[in-house]
From TrEMBL:
This is Glutamine synthetase III. The lineage of its organism: Bacteria, Bacillati, Bacillota, Erysipelotrichia, Erysipelotrichales. Residues 157-587 form the GS catalytic domain. Residues 63-152 form the GS beta-grasp domain. It comes from Faecalicoccus acidiformans. Belongs to the glutamine synthetase family. PANTHER family: GLUTAMINE SYNTHETASE, TYPE-3 GLUTAMINE SYNTHETASE. SMART domains: Gln-synt_C.
């Protein structure tokens, strides 16, 4: 049976059609206005909206509703409430009020809050984000919400994102007005996140404690074949995976997620799914749903999806390219060069703002993607380096050089690049020019931020990008609004901005070691690890920036800093404890069993041969015993460090201790254990190896 995609698309979403059908026309218009302007819902119409939503949800088989939110844990949270309300006579009525729609009060005391909620006021509240449609998942009506403390402090990943969208809307509108775009009333950023993931067989997965507890392999010798044949990328999709993808697509489509492309990625067992881009908050909600469904549907197909940034050593990890742009309610993409000189000048101004923002806020962009998992990817020649730079491509770069140097642009038209004046030529953009090694690449009409990890919420990097760009637009608008000679000021502004910030532009190979040296000479930041990056978040100028743009206040920033540092420590602590457990209970006992078998063989050989020193059995036994002792010592060393870590109370000191002491002790344990894997009889090895995990489907 074929599926009519147009029929199933959005069938589980309370979208505009449902609203129009279920609401009186004036209520519908009022709600539309709320959605378009991104304003809170008027309580007067809330009851009507809630009623329509409930009726629609019941007709779809829903029994409960939930305020669906994104706490700082990075996964979505939901608490289900039934629609049922007991009435007299032992009966029930199904109700859902406007109050229940607008605001929820989850007892959320066990979500990470970094000290924001005093214990005497442990409640939080959730508030509907009407710009993101409600949907039905597993017979639950899910209402996308933001999550705050009673004092109004953001406790989630969504609130700062919504605030940052407001900031960029305000500032971009100021700029657009200066260019005479009176018809534009709102500006939104758009995002298309490309989601990478691995699929492994559920049976193999369930035998590996490291995958179960940490999502990545903490042990594992390389198998004879890796990704060197380059035969997986865009290769034929295996039938089992194909069946999973079909299921996944259909369920995503039902939820209104426009899953569009799917293909095999570079590494064996690695895949990618990309949706058509949408408004940033919706793209963020949809990406959370996508991650959830990838995991859930994989299980249905007896597989497990690994969203971790680096599930396998020696094999490419997974990222989430964040394609980002800005567009107007009139449908114009502001990062698309236009046809007229004026449109091009406007494009160049936005471009200059972004270049300046990236250069001035390298620290924030870097830390917005910092996590224990992502530390394995960045700078490891499979993902962009940890150094932030901007790729523009040769053609656009030549245009900018011509502006900076006031020389004729060396393109086909040989025109002097005088901004604003009618001589500005049509900008030639080669969108095929793709430099895969750049962290922040212009790809024709959007920027592709390639540093985010596969596992993280995209709200983090997007609220940072939105905020830093909004702040630059604010400065530009300040400079331009007061000027008497708009064109001259505009020209100088673009020229000087590019001149001062061109060090951030790099069109070469980001994987090359020489780039690291070059970047250092240019004074660019190179923050290797999460604890190197995160402290920049609370630098005074960054606190001032986020406060100025009304995205986060000082307390919220302090709390987020603490939460993310602690998260890093907790993740690696669990990894360390898992390694100790696996080494002591599985790896060393298996190797000892093998050593025993070998020594028994050697003993029996002794009666036959005189010189058994050089036999396979003796030599192997020696090596196995040596690695067992190494492993034992390394395990003890790691245990000692893990105990030290438990005694450190200060969250910053703990994170630095993890970075400096725990990680190297983990490496120290992995080495002898991986050597043992290559020595010990496969039949005795306690868990499936890389070969099975990577090629087992
Ligand atoms: P790649 O070649 O990088 O793999 P894909 O086609 O897989 O490119 O992904 C490109 C992503 O960029 C898609 O999700 C697409 O919808 C998104 N995209 C395209 N235009 C825009 C835009 N204006 N704003 C945000 N994202 C966009
Ligand atoms: Mg991409």
């Amino acid at each position: 049976m074929t599926t009519d995609i147009t029929k199933i698309f959005g069938s589980k979403v309370f979208n505009e059609d449902c609203m129009r059908e279920g609401l009186a026309s004036d209520t519908y218009r009022e709600l539309q206005k709320t959605i378009q302007e991104g304003k809170p819902l008027n309580p007067k119409i809330a009851n009507a909206v809630a009623h329509a939503m409930k009726e629609w949800a019941l007709s779809q088989g829903a029994t409960h509703y939930t305020h669906w939110f994104q706490p700082m844990t990075g996964v979505t949270a939901e608490k289900h409430d039934g629609f049922i309300n007991p009435i007299e006579g032992g009966k029930v009525r199904l109700t859902f009020s406007g109050k229940e729609l607008i605001k929820g009060e989850p007892d959320a005391s066990s979500f990470p809050n970094g000290g924001l909620r005093a214990t005497f006021e442990a409640r939080g509240y959730t508030a509907w984000d009407p710009t993101s449609y409600a949907f039905i998942k597993d017979n639950i009506l899910c209402i996308p919400t933001a999550f705050c403390s009673y004092t109004g402090h953001a406790l989630d990943k969504k609130t700062p994102l919504l605030r940052s969208m407001e900031a960029i809307n305000t500032q971009a509108l100021r700029i657009l007005k200066l260019f005479g775009n009176e018809e534009v009333t709102s500006v939104k950023t758009t995002v298309g996140p490309e989601q990478e993931y691995f699929l492994v067989d559920k049976e193999y997965y369930s035998k590996r404690k490291d995958l179960i507890y940490t999502g990545r392999t903490l042990f594992g010798a390389p198998c004879p074949k890796g990704q060197e044949m380059e035969d997986h990328y865009f290769g034929t999709i295996k039938s089992r995976v194909q069946a999973f993808m079909k299921d996944l697509n259909e369920q995503l489509w039902e939820l209104g997620v426009s899953a569009k492309t799917e293909h095999n990625e570079v590494a064996p067992a690695q895949h990618e799914l990309a949706p058509v881009f949408s408004t940033t908050n919706i793209a963020t909600d949809h990406n959370q749903l996508t991650m959830e469904l990838i995991q859930r549907i994989a299980k249905k197909h007896d597989m497990v999806a690994l969203l971790h940034e680096k599930p396998f050593e020696g094999i490419n990890g997974s990222g989430k390219h964040n394609n980002w742009s800005i567009s107007t309610n009139t449908g114009k993409n502001l990062l698309e060069p236009g046809d007229t000189p004026y449109e091009n000048a406007q494009f160049l101004l936005f471009l200059a703002a972004i270049i300046k923002a990236v250069d001035e806020h390298q620290d924030l962009l870097r830390l917005s993607v910092a996590s224990a998992g992502n530390d394995h990817r960045l700078g490891a020649n499979e993902a962009p380096p940890a150094i932030i730079s901007v790729f523009l491509g040769d053609e656009l770069n030549a245009v900018l050089e011509a502006i900076i140097n006031e020389t004729p642009y060396d393109g086909a038209e040989h025109k002097l690049m005088k901004i604003g004046a009618s001589v500005l030529p049509k900008l030639p953009l080669d969108t095929t020019d793709r430099n895969r090694t750049s962290p922040f690449a212009f790809t024709g009409n959007k920027f592709e931020f390639r540093m985010p990890g596969s596992n993280s919420s995209i709200s983090g990097c997007n609220f940072v990008i939105n905020t830093v760009v909004a702040d630059e637009l604010r400065q530009f608008a300040d400079a331009l609004e007061g000027t008497l000679d708009f064109e001259a000021t505009l020209h100088d502004l673009i020229k000087n901005t590019l001149k001062h910030h061109k060090r951030i532009i790099f069109n070469g190979n980001g994987y090359d070691d020489s780039w690291i040296e070059e970047a250092e000479k240019r004074g660019l930041l190179n923050l290797h690890t999460t604890p190197d990056a995160l402290p920049y978040f609370i630098h005074e100028e960054n606190i001032e920036l986020f406060e100025r743009m009304h995205v986060l206040d000082r307390e919220e920033m302090m709390s987020r800093y603490e939460i993310t540092m602690e998260e890093y420590t907790k993740i690696i602590n669990i990894e360390a404890l898992t390694m100790i457990n696996m080494a002591k209970k599985e790896i060393l006992p298996a190797a000892t069993k093998y050593a025993k078998q070998l020594s028994e063989t050697i003993l029996s050989q002794k009666s036959v041969w005189e010189d058994i020193e050089t036999t396979y059995e003796s030599q192997t036994l020696k090596e196995v015993s040596k690695q067992i002792q190494e492993g034992y010592r390394a395990c003890q060393a790691l245990e000692e460090k893990a105990e030290c870590l438990h005694r450190i109370e200060d969250f910053e000191k703990a994170a630095f201790f993890v970075r400096d002491e725990i990680l190297s002790a983990m490496d120290g344990l992995r080495k002898p254990c991986d050597l043992l894997e290559n020595l010990v009889d496969e039949a005795l090895w306690p868990f499936p190896t890389y070969g099975k995990l990577l090629f087992g489907i």
